[in-house]
Amino acid sequence: MLPFEYDRATDVEQAVRLGAQAGARYIGGGTNLLDLYKSGIERPARLVDVSRLPLNTIEALPDGGVRIGAMASNTAAANHALVRERCPLLAEALLAGASAQLRNMATVGGNLLQRTRCHYFTDPALGACNKRTPGSGCAARDGFNRIHAILGGSESCIAVHPSDMAVALCALDAVVRVRSQSGEREIPVNDFHRLPGDTPHIDTTLRPGELITAIDVPAVAFGTRSHYLKVRDRASYAFALVSVAAAIDVHDGMVREVCIALGGVAHKPWRAREAEDALRGKEFSEDNLRAAAALALAQARPQEHNRYKVELARRVIVRALRIAGDMA
Ligand code: SF4
């Protein structure tokens, strides 16, 4: 076991001061970090325990949105009346993730920071991994890449982001609130996770020492006509092969507004803006849904073992929109 320093922060100011130290990592529920620590992939010199911080409230925002404290558990967020009423898409996505036991432990802030479940990343015995050891290579490119990215990948990495929650937040244009010794800032969820490029070891745009304090989910007028559809290898406790978070506003058979995000296809939750643009103002018809889904996957670059994801993603987009728009 690798030795590390442990501090339990009692307020946010203390947490960000401790978190600014070299080698420090924040720990909330620990459901991902401790797994990676035990297998030697994460080697924090110092853990700053933020689980006792008063950041677990869920409250209404004046504009009709919801602010979810970063330390709220996934279970608390999914079952909270405000979340279920104002952003059911988010509640659905949260309940599609992990197991009940994990959702009870995992925090909303930590959910955003989950690392990929690429087998070559989580098991060093399987081969080289640029995300684990920068510059070492990517065993997945010529290896077994059934679960990997079809959009936004690079020569260095084709891993996918594992969070369900983040896909819904991406569709809903949520904002991540962070705090450091320099003060506060807001990061749109769409800009929070990175594409791999040639630095796949950097998952997010968080700066060193920054602590997630809350997530603001704005009011989406048509947010109740939504659906999160997740396709996975087994019915529970499995990561998405492909998932889609969709909300759509249909009036007199025409699409007035729509938002679509995909999970399981890229290094970050993937917003399908071309598909949204193609549907806006069009008839809510099967043909138009299929055309929009085809556009969403037009730039797909599948690997040897994951070609199935392209057609699967098209179908999941159509199905999710049909359910959200009450066509199913
Ligand atoms: Fe590592 Fe990314 Fe390649 Fe997986 S896909 S082995 S995480 S570099």
Task: Summarize it.
This protein starts with a strand and ends with a helix.
List keywords for this structure.
oxidoreductase activity, alpha+beta, 14 helices, 328 residues, flavoprotein, 5-stranded antiparallel beta sheet, Enolase-like, domain 1, CO_DH_flav_C_dom_sf, binds iron/sulfur cluster, 12 strands, 4-stranded antiparallel beta sheet, Xanthine dehydrogenase family protein subunit M
How does this structure look, described?
InterPro entries: CO_DH_flav_C, CO_DH_flav_C_dom_sf, Diverse_Substr_Oxidored, FAD-bd_PCMH, FAD-bd_PCMH-like_sf, FAD-bd_PCMH_sub1, FAD-bd_PCMH_sub2, Mopterin_DH_FAD-bd. Keywords: FAD, Flavoprotein. One of its GO terms (molecular function) is FAD binding. The chain has 328 residues and is of the alpha+beta class. It has a domain of 101 residues: Enolase-like, domain 1, CATH 3.30.390.50. Helix content is 30%, strand content 20%. It is built from 14 helices and twelve strands. The protein has a five-stranded antiparallel sheet with strand order 4-5-8-6-7. Helix 5 runs antiparallel to helix 10, helix 12 packs antiparallel against helix 13 and helix 13 crosses helix 14. The longest helix is centred in the C-terminal third of the chain and has 17 residues. It is globular and about 60 Å long. It starts with a strand and ends with a helix. The structure holds iron/sulfur cluster (SF4). The site of iron/sulfur cluster has 15 residues, from helix 8 and helix 9.
